[in-house]
Design a protein that fits this description.
Elements lengths: L11 H5 L2 H10 L1 H16 L8 H11 L8 E3 L16 H9 L8 E2 L4 E2 L4 H10 L5 E5 L2 H12 L9 E3 L14 E4 L5 E2 L3 E2 H7 L4 E4 L7 H9 L4 E5 L15 H10 L4 E6 L15 H6 L4 E5 L10 E5 L1 H9 L2 H4 L4 H13 L3 H6 L3 H15 L1 E5 L17 E6 L3 H5 L4 E3 L1 E3 L2 E4 L9 H14 L9 E2 L1
Parallel strand pairs: 1-16, 5-9, 6-9, 6-10, 10-11, 11-12, 14-19
Antiparallel strand pairs: 2-3, 4-13, 7-8, 12-13, 14-15, 15-18, 17-18
Amino acid sequence: MVEDPRRAIPRTDRLMEHPQLIAASRSLGRSVVLGLVRAAQDRARRGEISAAEVVDAVLEAAGSQRASSLTPVLNATGVIIHTNLGRAPLSEPARQALADAAGYVDVELDLPSGARSRRGAAARAALLARCRHADDALIVNNGAAALLLAATALGGGPAAGAGAAPVGGGAAPATAGHGGIVISRGEFIEIGAGFRLSDLITSAGTQLVEVGTTNRTHLEDYAGALAAGAGCVLKVHPSNFALTGFTASVPTAELAALCREHAVPLIVDVGSGLLSADAMLPNEPSIDAALAAGADAVIASGDKLLGGPQAGLILGTAETIARLARHPLARAVRADKLTLAAIEATLRAGTSPVAEILHTDPEALRARTEALAAQVGGSVIAHDGRVGGGGGTGVPLPGWALALPADCAPALRTGDPAVLPRVHGGRCLIDLRCIPAEHDAALAAAIAKALDAGSSPDPRLGNGT
């Protein structure tokens, strides 16, 4: 009688007792490892592998498994703040802070007294230490949440009707007493995936009062809306586009003076989270400058030029921040302990990968790119990087890229490590700006593998520079 070979397949409980799988269960979770065990056993039952190969198959699968399905990517696009790649890469201090905050922490507790404390006090203090013109600050879960909270809490009441109420230029004024938030038509922003700030503001029932025209808005346009009873003014930096030609807008300082006359708050959304002026980005508004100009609340994202995690930062006068913190919506959009920990660590470090990449020496990039070309082939060409994330619109960041055949791109994206290049002009471009130098060897290996998987190198690309 021939014994069924499937009877030799290792039992589940025996496999789960393997020392390497016990360790894998701690890092991946028992249910994940159990699934890998059962998948290998099923392969043996189907005859795809022998019973003797089950253990090795499970160990191999566990070794390549990650706790999350998110795949680490080498960003070879030259775009520093790449939204599709999670925006700002975190600094080592911020990553350590995330690990430290993963367990129980005193996020809302004063340990010496044992009493409840204000949530995220240390992160708020770190933010205020870097923004000298702010009286107080509030950290929420993202930039859109910060704008929603500010518009809802300061907008002066629910909308009298649906949609926006036009004011000025011969249009009927908004009904006095119904509040609303005033915005220039030239600052109506739509960002990625069709997301419109106007839709966000009106979603909570706040009336949007449009003033001016697409290309020109004047101080008297705002004055007319405020005289009609609007509750506050919102000034938005057009971060992902630029208006040129016959244009006019009102500086923050002039708007702040007008708002003080009418005793209404001025909200300024600077978007990208630049704390103070940077010579690399001469036209990028900073949080500090907006506060110094008299804004009552300044809104920015934490995961852009600040270089921290996703977060919404609101800085301003003590009265305004207190008003926002008391609003019921503040609870719904508050930041979690991981965000607070990473923000604090980013601010205290004084720098970030984003800041370092932004100020990379182009000649250092050229030397690295030439060294890469010497290993894998291709040609070194001039290539401008970009800030991304709505920051530094139109500002080129001079640098270099390795040009390879376009058909390398799919293999690079799906390789190990995954590499995201830029495909442009029929070529696959590898920009090292956002890739730490310690990954150059792994990148070279990934490119060599992608070239082997694709067609022969295009002779037009040459070798080296």
